[in-house]
């Protein structure tokens, strides 16, 4: 005690050095009174040295004009002291929490780094101050405080439960001061926040007195006339109500004592807020609310006799007073899922008034008050996630049983391991599982937004789809009309909703691309004058290892099956099916084999001559369909397993593999003569999707004497076109000339032979 007296003396002496421009005379007097009370209730952790440091810092902050009055014009010193006293007196919290409460407004205004706070006051106080800063930032992001999600977010965002307790105490202190506030709109806003946000939190924590006061004050400010009407009615009937309760209890006590039962009886009156809510629900006046109070009989007995003695009490009461069978609630035989056990009856007492009686044992009462069946669940208020409930339940037990409040430090918990809460730019709140990414959030908002998402902006910085979000992030999704889901997205998504939508989009995309591949295959066959037959196509798909044609074409679209290979195989299967000999492109090498001497003498007047090696004769050869060699191409021969020869272009996509794996089967080949045969080749043209560009290209082709346009396919996307031109010509010279001419067309970016 001498130490606390010294603390108060120190505070009194040094109050005068605080800037007089900031504190009114009335506030100085108020501060001295509050300091006296603070010192009286503060634990030993608030030492003389600790109080000196607090006073020095607050004074310095005031001198530097870093501290401003709140929206109602109240001094932050008065507010902080009132809140700290509530923490110590009504919540029985430790000195560390009280000191953190006193310092937070000044550190927040001064923008002091957390490292400095930790160095000066320790890690615990630094954690409290940092949590209060984060919670204040949370309020600036959304006005949606009248939701259960926001209550849970407040708890998870604070991380340290002491922050939530300080916020609750702060709101109670604010509600007590609102009677002096003239700004009705601001007063009502704080009152609604207290009713919808902090009263339920206090309820969950078992702070029933604080909860009831918050709710009653909310009614006082929001429903002024109703509040004073109910209060006057309660005051007018208090003596009569107390007398009635005594008359009701007296005979019951006598009967229970005669039965040899150990018990005690409690009586409680409903709060003004509760009465007002019932009046609104039942649409009646004060006189229409009959259950203004309830009687609770708590029995002290062994566990094995609990049900027996509860029903014994029930029998005694119902013998004395007429029960209402419709109002019987038997939670003894079948307890609630949350563990609540009790027997509720409503009986007609003296003067024909209905009275609710609750019968339970000491154990049941403890469970109802401190265990899973907390009062907030019992009344049917929606709970948050189980992790939050269990955590708050442990804190609640500490608060109500008076255990060492330092144990609170052990219950710090990062709820991001279970769930996160994320905001849209407009302040809408969404709950996501831990580890959720930007992509998950986009799909949570809308499927179309998810499918077009390319990234997000968080706190002014750009982040990719795979970025993991944190509670409190305000996320702005970036979209692109050209964006489509791909298989990699399944590695980024965490939520089942996002993964399901991605798989659905990929399936639809595969079907669409498979249809395009089918159309390309049909055109390929048509260009080679090969009829389309479903039976042969089904056999072809099975030959490639696919049961369905759709899967076959999906594989073709994905590149697993090559279009040219599939067309070649189809042609062979068609020829075999219809007995067509393979003479289309197979020619006797003997007919085209001219020696070098003949070529050098210029005696060769044949049209198309291919020289294979130097002296091979009587060998059939086939022009490879993978590269479509034509007269003038640099070519080579490949001896197939059947003994024939396939002619490939030197730039064939398969040339490298053939040379590396089957170098011993490679033979030389070259063109001789003047040419003359017509060959089918394919050109790929890419350019801007300009009006008339296709007409310009076809006009150039039509003017070429030795080139015939057989087919053209144009696809457009994002302002670009991709064209596939199938032409027939006699030599590479004609092709080279055509490529150069097409390249001069305005808007064409590239022309390549495939």
Description:
There is one protein chain. The chain is α+β, with helices and mostly antiparallel strands. It folds into 6 domains: about 200 residues, Hypothetical protein af1432 (Orthogonal Bundle); about 140 residues, Beta Polymerase, domain 2 (2-Layer Sandwich), CATH 3.30.460.10; about 70 residues, Beta-grasp domain (Ubiquitin-like (UB roll)); about 80 residues, no CATH class; about 90 residues, no CATH class; about 80 residues, ACT domain (Alpha-Beta Plaits, 2-Layer Sandwich), CATH 3.30.70.260. The protein is about 50% helix and about 15% strand. It is built from 29 helices and 21 strands. Strands 1, 2, 3, 4, 5 and 6 form a 6-stranded mixed sheet that branches. Strands 12-14-16-15-17-13 form a 6-stranded mixed sheet. The chain has a 4-stranded antiparallel sheet with strand order 19-20-18-21, with helices on one face. A hairpin with a 5-residue loop joins strand 5 and strand 6. Helix 4 packs antiparallel against helix 5, helix 9 packs across helix 10 and helix 9 packs across helix 11. The N terminus is likely disordered.
């Amino acid at each position: 005690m001498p130490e606390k007296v010294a603390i108060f003396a120190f505070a009194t002496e040094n109050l005068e050095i605080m800037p007089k421009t900031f504190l009114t005379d009335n506030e100085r007097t108020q501060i001295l009174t509050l300091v006296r009370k603070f010192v009286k209730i503060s634990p030993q952790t608030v030492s003389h040295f600790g109080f000196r440091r607090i006073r020095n810092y607050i004074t310095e902050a005031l001198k530097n004009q870093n501290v401003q009055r709140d929206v109602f014009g109240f001094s932050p010193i008065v507010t902080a002291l009132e809140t700290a006293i509530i923490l110590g007196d009504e919540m029985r919290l430790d000195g560390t929490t009280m000191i953190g409460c006193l310092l937070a407004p000044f550190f927040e205004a001064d923008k002091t780094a957390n490292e400095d706070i930790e160095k000066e006051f320790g890690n615990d106080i630094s954690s409290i101050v940092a949590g209060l800063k984060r919670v204040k930032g949370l309020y600036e992001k959304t006005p949606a405080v009248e939701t259960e999600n926001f209550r849970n977010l407040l708890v998870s965002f604070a991380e340290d439960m002491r922050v939530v307790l300080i916020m609750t105490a702060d709101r109670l202190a604010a509600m007590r001061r609102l009677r002096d506030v003239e700004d009705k709109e601001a007063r009502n806003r704080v009152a609604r926040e207290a009713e919808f946000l902090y009263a339920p939190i206090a309820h969950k924590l078992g702070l029933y007195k604080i909860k009831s006061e918050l709710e009653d004050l909310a009614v006082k400010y929001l429903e002024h006339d109703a509040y004073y009407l109910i209060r006057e009615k309660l005051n007018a009937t208090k003596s009569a109500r107390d007398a009635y309760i005594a008359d009701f209890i007296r005979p019951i006590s006598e009967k229970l004592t005669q039965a040899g039962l150990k018990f005690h009886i409690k009586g409680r009156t409903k709060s003004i807020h509760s009465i007002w809510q019932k009046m609104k629900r039942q649409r009646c006046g004060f006189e229409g609310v009959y259950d203004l109070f309830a009687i609770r009989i708590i029995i002290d007995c062994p566990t094995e006799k609990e049900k027996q003695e509860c029903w014994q009490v029930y029998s005694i009461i119902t013998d004395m007073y007429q029960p209402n069978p419709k109002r019987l609630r038997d939670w003894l035989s079948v307890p609630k899922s949350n563990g609540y056990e009790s027997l509720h009856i409503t009986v007609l007492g003296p003067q024909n008034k209905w009275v609710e009686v609750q019968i339970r044992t000491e154990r049941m009462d403890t469970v109802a008050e401190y265990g899973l069946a907390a009062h907030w669940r019992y009344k049917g208020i929606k709970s948050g996630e189980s992790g939050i409930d269990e955590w708050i339940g442990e804190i609640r037990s500490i608060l109500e049983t008076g255990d060492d409040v330092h144990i609170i430090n052990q219950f710090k918990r990062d709820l991001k391991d279970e769930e996160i809460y994320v905001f849209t730019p407009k302040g809408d709140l969404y709950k996501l599982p831990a580890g959720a990414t930007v992509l998950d959030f986009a799909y949570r908002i809308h499927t179309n937004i998810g499918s077009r998402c390319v990234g997000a902006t968080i706190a002014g910085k750009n982040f990719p789809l795979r970025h993991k979000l944190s509670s409190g992030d305000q996320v702005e999704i970036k979209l692109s009309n050209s964006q489509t889901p791909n298989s990699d997205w399944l590695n980024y998504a965490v939520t089942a909703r996002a993964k399901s939508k991605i798989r659905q989009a990929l399936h639809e995309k595969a079907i669409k691309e498979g249809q395009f591949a089918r159309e390309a295959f049909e055109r390929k066959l048509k260009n080679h004058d090969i009829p389309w037959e479903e039976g042969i196509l089904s056999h072809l798909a099975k030959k490639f290892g696919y049961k369905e044609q759709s899967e076959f074409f999906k594989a073709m679209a994905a590149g697993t099956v090559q279009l040219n290979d599939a067309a070649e195989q189809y042609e062979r299967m068609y020829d075999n099916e219809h007995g067509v000999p393979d003479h289309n492109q197979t020619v006797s090498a003997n007919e085209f084999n001219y020696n070098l001497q003949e070529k050098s003498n210029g005696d060769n007047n044949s049209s198309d001559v291919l020289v294979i090696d130097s002296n091979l004769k009587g060998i059939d050869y086939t022009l490879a369909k993978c590269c479509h060699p034509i007269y003038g191409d640099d070519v080579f021969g490949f001896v197939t397993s059947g003994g024939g020869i396939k002619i490939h272009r030197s730039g064939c996509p398969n040339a490298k593999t053939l040379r590396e794996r089957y170098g011993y089967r490679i033979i030389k080949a070259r063109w001789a003569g003047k040419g003359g045969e017509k060959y089918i080749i394919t050109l790929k043209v890419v350019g801007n999707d300009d009006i008339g560009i296709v007409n310009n290209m076809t006009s150039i082709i039509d003017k070429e004497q030795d080139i015939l346009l057989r087919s053209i396919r144009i696809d457009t996307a994002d302002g670009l076109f991709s064209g596939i031109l199938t032409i027939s010509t006699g030599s590479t010279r004609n092709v080279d000339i055509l490529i150069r001419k097409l390249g001069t067309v305005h808007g064409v970016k590239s022309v390549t032979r495939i």
